[in-house]
Write a structure and sequence with these properties.
The structure holds two protein chains of two kinds. By secondary structure, chain A is an all-alpha fold. Chain A contains eight helices and two strands; from the N terminus they run H-H-E-E-H-H-H-H-H-H. In chain A, helix 3 crosses helix 7. The relative contact order of chain A is 0.15. In chain B, helix 1 runs antiparallel to helix 3. The chains are: A mainly alpha, B mainly alpha.
Chain lengths: 220, 97
C-alpha cells in the first residue's frame, strides 16, 4: 500500500511527515536506550529480509496482489522502537532507490506502516499474548496482530486519501478494507512462519525470548 | 551468533530467485485506485530519478534477471544502510568485554 505522489494533498503530506518525524525521533531516543552493539547486525538483517520479502507480491483474488508489510514481524522479533526504524529505512530506500512510494507521500507511508502498523502490532500482540500463553496461542496472537497491523494501516491510508479530497472515505474504506482483509491473512501466515523459523535459527536472544514469553533456550 | 547471517543469505535468495516470479497484478491500493478512478492522479514523472525504477536493474535485457539483480542490490543496500544507522543510534557496549 505504498502511496504514490499525487494522491495526498499538501496539508496531508506535510501533517503525516511531521507526525512521522516526531515518532521516529522518539523511536531513535528509545532505541538508543536499549540497543547495544550485539543487536546492530540483527537490525540490518531484519531490514534486508523485509526489503526482499516486500518484493514478493503474492496473488490474492480478482487480479490483485499483496506483499508482506513486516511491521508485526519486526515488532515481535526486535521490539516496537527498532521495528519503526527498520520499516522506515526500508520505505526510504524503496522510495529513493526504486521509485516505490512517492517522495511527497513518504511521510504518509512511514506513518501508516512504520508508525501505526508497528503500534497496532505491538499493542495487539501484547494483549493477545497475555491471554493465550502457550505456543499455539502465541502463534495465534502473532497472526491476529499481523492481520490488524495491515488492516489498520490500510484504514489510515483510506483516511488520508479522503482528507486529501482524492476519494471519499465512504468509498475508499470499504474497497481498501476488502483487499487488505485478504492481504492481512497472507501477512499473518508469513509472519508466523518467519518468526518461528528465525527463532529456531538463533535470531532471538534467550534473554529477550524469556522476556517476550518464549521458551528460554540457551542459544549462545 | 553467526547463524543469524544465514537469514541474510535467505533474504538474498528470496530477492534473487523469488522476485522474478512475484505477481505483477496491482496491489490493494493500486487496484482500489483503478476501480475508483483516481489512479490518474498519481504522478508518473518522479521528482528525483531513482537508480532502479520499478525494481529493474538498468542495462540488463532479461526482465527476470534485471529484477533479480535489483533485488540483490536492494537487499544489500538495505542491510548496509540499516547497520550504519543502527551503529549511530546504538550505544557502545562497554569495552571491558
Amino acid at each position: 500500500m505504498h502511496i504514490p505522489d499525487g494522491f495526498l494533498d499538501t496539508k496531508t503530506w506535510i501533517t503525516t511527515a511531521v507526525l512521522s518525524a516526531g515518532a521516529l525521533g522518539y523511536s531513535v531516543k528509545k532505541s538508543r536506550e536499549e540497543l547495544d552493539e550485539k543487536q546492530v547486525p540483527k537490525l540490518g538483517i531484519m531490514a534486508a529480509f523485509i526489503f526482499a520479502a516486500q518484493m514478493i507480491n503474492f496473488p490474492i483474488a480478482g487480479g490483485t496482489s499483496g506483499h508482506l508489510l513486516g511491521a508485526a514481524l519486526a515488532t515481535v522479533l526486535l521490539g516496537p522502537w527498532n521495528a519503526a526504524l527498520i520499516i522506515s529505512t526500508v520505505l526510504v530506500i524503496q522510495c529513493f532507490g526504486f521509485q516505490d512510494g512517492g517522495i511527497t507521500a513518504l511521510g504518509g507511508n512511514i506513518f501508516n506502516m512504520a508508525v501505526v502498523g508497528v503500534i497496532v502490532a505491538f499493542i495487539s500482540c501484547k494483549i493477545l499474548s497475555s491471554l493465550f500463553k502457550n505456543a499455539a496461542g502465541r502463534n495465534i496472537s502473532i497472526f491476529i496482530a499481523s492481520w490488524l497491523s495491515v488492516f489498520v494501516a490500510a484504514t489510515m491510508a483510506s483516511f488520508e486519501l479522503a482528507v486529501s479530497g482524492t476519494v471519499p472515505f465512504s468509498v475508499a474504506f470499504p474497497a481498501m478494507a476488502g483487499w487488505h482483509t485478504l492481504i492481512g491473512i497472507g501477512e499473518g501466515l508469513i509472519t508466523v512462519v518467519v518468526v518461528n523459523t528465525v527463532t529456531r535459527m538463533g535470531f532471538v536472544d534467550a534473554k529477550i525470548a524469556s522476556v517476550r514469553g518464549q521458551r528460554d533456550e540457551r542459544n549462545l | 551468533m553467526k547463524g543469524i547471517y544465514k537469514i541474510l543469505i535467505l533474504a538474498l535468495i528470496v530477492a534473487a530467485f523469488l522476485s522474478p516470479f512475484a505477481s505483477s497484478s496491482p496491489d490493494g491500493l493500486e487496484k482500489v485506485a483503478e476501480d475508483l478512478g483516481f489512479i490518474d492522479k498519481s504522478n508518473e514523472s518522479p521528482i528525483i530519478k531513482s537508480p532502479f525504477p520499478d525494481y529493474v536493474f538498468p542495462g540488463i535485457k532479461n526482465e527476470g534477471a534485471a529484477t533479480a539483480v535489483a533485488g540483490i542490490a536492494g537487499t544489500l543496500i538495505t542491510f548496509g544502510v540499516m547497520v550504519g544507522l543502527a551503529k549511530t543510534v546504538g550505544k557502545k557496549t562497554r569495552r571491558t568485554q
